[in-house]
Specification:
- The structure holds two protein chains of two kinds.
- Chain A is mainly β.
- Chain A has five helices and 29 strands.
- Chain A has an 18-stranded mixed β-sheet that branches.
- The N terminus of chain A is likely disordered.
- By secondary structure, chain B is α/β, with parallel strands linked by helices.
- Chain B is about 35% helix and about 25% strand.
- Chain B has three domains: about 100 residues, Ubiquitin-like (UB roll) (Roll), CATH 3.10.20; about 160 residues, 3-Layer(aba) Sandwich (Rossmann fold); about 300 residues, no CATH class.
- In chain B, about 55% of the residues are buried.
- Chains A and B meet through strand 5, strand 10, helix 4 and strand 26 of A and helix 3, helix 4, helix 9, helix 11 and helix 12 of B.
């Protein structure tokens, strides 16, 4: 029988996790192999070249471009402050000279005699990369970054917004099928990673921002609520840079959908533990899903599997799966049969299918493309 | 060394896409070239494999198993035969590639509507995705332009500007913005970013000085707009292809080996599609539009009166970008194509769920109807963008009549004309894999609104890229396979242009074909399907105010091609206008019934 593989998201109580932390360009690595680091420790840093500010000096001085280099008050390569005089025209018989002030602070990088353009390079911008998870440095990647390893509990979400966040885990919904409402959010949740249940409402998100919650993890979100929060309709799932005052991670999808019980149980079992979370999602080539990483206190030697990144596993009879498209969107079940021959779907298309026994005992036929593994 | 076409009888061609590597076998059977087998395997550019040739070997190995002809050596390379009598091996191996995001470029020109637009046309025509177009008059302030340049990570930059002998200052200013901004290439710090300069030849010394600072690999080619009246895109396009091979491909995992395996230069996939469509348009003397709708983007290609244009609508697609289609078109526009009652909030959540789980497929009839409605809007928007881009040259001095002055038409009329269009070719999942061919034809007609007589076809297995490269080594083979195996003829659409009113006649028609004939009157807002699989003689007499190509009210008698769908008579008028609400839903349901889109 041909093997069938299908992607799934990791929900694991213990996995050996490797965080590959890279600078956007080469720089200085501040750790060495074997060092123990905390999640917020800086492991690498560099300076990005400063912004360029062009000034059309020949226009400003009303002179020919070739005269511009000779009219600078400071030579190329000199530091200049914002609003400091940078160039002056010769005037008429030494009178009525025009003085131009620098529009930005930095260094005079160039003055073109063919276009009359002067470039000011701003101060370098420091960039720091943190460890993201506590653990041990196991590899230094030249002058680009480092790899941090630890045994963790790991949950991959399906979608998120906002960047990296850190904090202790707190519980907003005691049950996986409970909607996260504003009334569940209290002031002591400030700085926490709050675990919801089913859909997070827009009122709950707004209340969480008000209180200062670091992040929310819940089963679903309504598209209309996401649009209200972002102020625009999200066109493509490339996220992570949103600045809405909170990071959100959805574990199942859009709509009224409960978090998988196993995911909820796992997260709730770590109440009070410090976790790291990243909402960044990229659903294109090189897919990236949001992650919740909870370092385990008792680092076991060698018995955890390597984790991180989406998994692809084999579909077998008895494999637990989640249906990821209507008409049974969100339903959990186990694979009951894997027919070899393609079947005609209700849509009229022909596709390879599998039979799933859902949690309520119903046996349904679903295209193989419409299930995902619930990976350990 | 290039092989003589007469010695090419067996061809292996691959297209390395982002997710799948598709291989086809082309053989000369009884003197005619046919595509005989096809196979596919996952692309292996990304980790953990990080070698594109593994996927190629896997796909060709499957081809070998299906065909019974040995095509792969023990070391995984493609087996060539030394004589045309050999039962194993192939004569030529060719490939295209769009893996790893394809070719991504930034272009710059002095005037947005003139040299910058010509530069964009050159880049798109070469098969690139244009990440941004920087122009002196693009309404961004210089520091905003610099910021944008710094954010992008292009594979190369094309700079144009100034006619030969004209102004040098503006194009030098552009270069002076780009050089210090130091755009970082996608392939890391060791890579010297290729800059292609195709502007005013007098500005070359200044441009060379500007990019002399290091970190750049400057190539200077002939001006792509030597005069305002003339575009000269060839040299820039060729250099883009060369740089794509020398720099971009050479940095992608395994491509150095793939380049060595292939008997012709590896081409960017869309560039190859453009080449085959141009060859077809030239060979048959027709105007062609081709569309390829993918998960993230939609490519539209057109050849009108010999002029080729291509646009890529980034973020108009059926999975990764489905949410963007709904946002850009508006849900009302999508739902006007749906004849079933659907809950809008539920649909919005479904759209987002498709976006985050892009590989899922519609299981229910309702889900399929909705997805095909979205596709109509994605195609329509992509075509609107294409029509706006595929224009006559702007900035050319024109003689105007008094009438022109009143019509206030800007320079640069669109070259794309629904009435002049002869052949519309569809490819991409939602069109190629629709359960019924009638659905493919309906999506094309609704989105592109062809006028007069238009043949409809689909590229069943997206073979056009392979044939584009094949045309560079054996044009006749490419043409024969295109006509016989690549295209599935759906039929012909006859659509009178004019304002149609429900219940009022639009045209009288008659058709004769082998084994049958029919005639009748087509009413406003009516669709009619004639099941004709071969050629037919038709005569059409449009009513006053309606035009099928010969002028308003003028009859046309001609031969048309049938196909797997047949002859579609479209009495809805052009441009299409649809009532909203329940009336609209009733009409859409009637059209679906007339075209037999859905089984009862």
């Amino acid at each position: 029988m041909a093997k069938a593989y299908t992607p799934g998201l990791t929900v694991s109580a213990r996995v050996r996790y490797r965080a590959r932390r890279l600078l956007p360009l080469t720089g200085r690595i501040t750790v060495k192999v074997g060092d123990r680091v905390a999640a917020t420790d800086v492991v690498a840093q560099t300076d990005l070249e400063g912004d360029i500010t062009p000034m059309k000096m020949s226009n400003l001085l009303s002179c020919a471009p070739r005269d511009v280099p000779g009219l600078l008050l400071k030579p190329v390569g000199s530091a200049i402050a914002k609003d400091e005089p940078i160039a002056q025209s010769k005037g008429i018989f030494g009178m009525m000279k025009v003085t131009v002030k620098a529009t930005a602070a930095g260094t005079i990088e160039s003055a073109s005699d063919s276009t009359g353009m002067v470039m000011i390079r701003g101060a370098a911008q420091p960039v720091q990369v943190r460890a993201f998870t506590s653990g041990r440095v196991v590899e230094v990647l030249g002058s680009e970054g480092a790899v941090i390893e630890n045994d963790v509990a790991l949950v991959q979400g399906i979608f998120g917004i906002g960047g990296e966040a850190y904090g202790p885990i707190a519980v907003g919904c005691a049950r996986a099928d409970e909607q996260l409402e504003a009334s569940s959010i209290r002031s002591e949740h400030a700085g926490c990673i709050l675990i919801g249940g089913a859909r997070m409402t827009i009122d709950a998100i707004r209340r969480a921002i008000e209180v200062g919650v670091a992040a929310i993890v819940s089963g679903g979100i309504d598209d209309a609520d996401l649009k209200a929060l972002l102020g625009h309709d999200l066109g493509v799932a490339i996220t992570g840079s949103e600045k809405v005052g909170i990071t959100l991670v959805v574990t199942e999808g859009f709509g009224d959908i409960a978090m998988a019980s196993r995911t909820h149980d796992l997260l709730v079992s770590h109440i009070g533990h410090t976790a790291s979370l990243n909402g960044a999602t990229q659903i294109r080539a090189g897919v990236m899903r949001p992650e919740i990483v909870i370092p385990l206190a008792d680092e076991a030697a060698g018995d955890a599997s390597a984790g991180g990144g989406a998994t692809a596993g084999e579909l077998l009879i008895g494999t637990p799966v989640r249906v990821i498209r209507d008409p049974w969107f969100g339903a959990l079940g186990t694979v009951a049969a894997l027919p070899e021959q393609p079947a005609v779907l209700g849509s009229g298309s022909k596709a390879r299918v599998l039979e799933v026994v859902l949690a309520d005992g119903q046996r349904v036929t679903v295209p193989r493309a419409n299930v995902e593994l619930i990976a350990e | 060394m290039r092989k003589e076409p007469s010695r090419i009888k067996v061809v292996v061609a691959t297209d390395c896409g982002s997710t799948t590597t598709k291989a086809i076998l082309i053989e000369c059977v009884d003197g005619v070239y046919r595509q005989t087998h096809r196979a596919e395997a996952p692309t292996t550019v990304e980790a953990p494999f990080a070698d594109v040739t593994l996927g190629v070997t896997n796909a060709v190995t499957e081809l070998q198993e299906l065909s019974g002809r040995r095509l792969v050596n023990d070391d995984g390379t493609i087996l060539r035969r030394t004589s045309t009598d050999d039962a194993d091996g192939c004569d030529v191996y060719i490939s295209t590639s769009s893996a790893g995001g394809g070719l991504q470029m930034m272009v710059a020109g002095v005037v947005k509507e003139m040299t910058a637009e010509s530069a964009k046309r050159a880049a798109l025509g070469a098969g690139a995705i244009v990440m941004d177009t920087i122009a002196s008059n693009d309404r961004r302030r210089p520091h905003e332009q610099v910021q944008r340049i710094r954010e992008l990570r292009p594979d190369m930059v094309l700079i144009s500007g100034g006619t030969d002998g004209g102004d040098m200052k503006k194009v030098t200013e552009l270069a002076e913005l780009i050089a210090p901004a130091k755009p970082r290439p996608r392939f890391g710090g060791e890579y010297s970013l290729p800059i292609i300069f195709a502007g005013n030849r007098d500005a070359r010394p200044a441009i060379e000085r500007t990019f002399a600072g290091g970190g750049f690999d400057l190539k200077v080619v002939d001006n792509l707009r030597p005069t305002l009246e003339r575009e000269n895109l060839g040299p820039a396009r060729e250099t883009i292809h060369d740089v794509f091979l020398e720099h971009v491909m050479a940095h992608a995992p395994g491509y150095d080996r793939l380049i060595a395996w292939a008997d012709a230069p590896i081409m960017p996939t869309p560039g190859a599609v453009g080449d085959i469509l141009q060859a077809i348009a030239k060979g048959r003397g027709i105007n062609v539009v081709g569309v390829d709708i993918g998960g993230a983007t939609t490519d539209v290609f057109s050849v009108f009166d010999g002029t080729f244009n291509r646009t890529v609508s980034a973020n108009l697609g059926m999975s990764y970008s489905i949410s963007n289609v709904c946002a850009e078109a508006g849900m009302d526009s999508v739902l006007r194509w749906v004849h079933l009652d659907m809950d809008e909030r539920e649909l919005r959540n479904r759209v987002k769920n498709k976006m985050i789980r892009p590989t899922t497929i519609p299981q229910t009839h309702e889900a399929l109807v909705f997805e095909q409605a979205v596709s109509r809007e994605a195609l329509r928007l992509a075509y609107v963008q294409h029509k706006a881009f595929a224009t006559e040259l702007k900035g050319v001095q024109q003689q105007r009549t008094v009438g022109d002055a009143f019509s206030q038409q800007e320079g640069g009329r669109s070259l794309v004309s629904g009435m002049k269009l002869d052949l519309l070719v569809a490819s991409g999942g939602v069109l190629s894999h629709a359960p019924r061919m009638e659905q493919t034809a309906a999506m094309l007609i609704d989105a592109f609104e062809p006028e007069g007589f238009t043949e409809l076809a689909k590229d069943s297995i997206f073979m056009m890229p392979h044939l584009g490269v094949l045309a560079t080594v054996h044009e006749r083979a490419a043409m024969e396979v295109f006509e016989r195996d690549c295209l599935v003829m759906l039929g012909t659409c006859i659509a009178p242009a004019g304002s149609a009113v429900a219940g009022k006649p639009v045209m009288r028609w008659s058709a004769r074909w082998e084994g049958g004939s029919a005639e009748g009157t087509l009413m406003g807002q009516e669709m009619k399907l004639l099941r004709i699989s071969e050629r037919a003689q038709v005569e059409v007499m449009p009513e006053r105010g309606f035009d099928v190509g010969a002028g308003p009210g003028v009859a046309v008698k001609r031969e048309v091609r049938g196909g797997s769908v047949g002859l579609i008579l479209d009495g809805r008028g052009r441009p299409l206008s649809m009532p909203s609400g329940a009336d609209g839903r009733r009409l859409v349901a009637a059209w679906a019934k007339a075209l037999e889109l859905h089984p009862d």
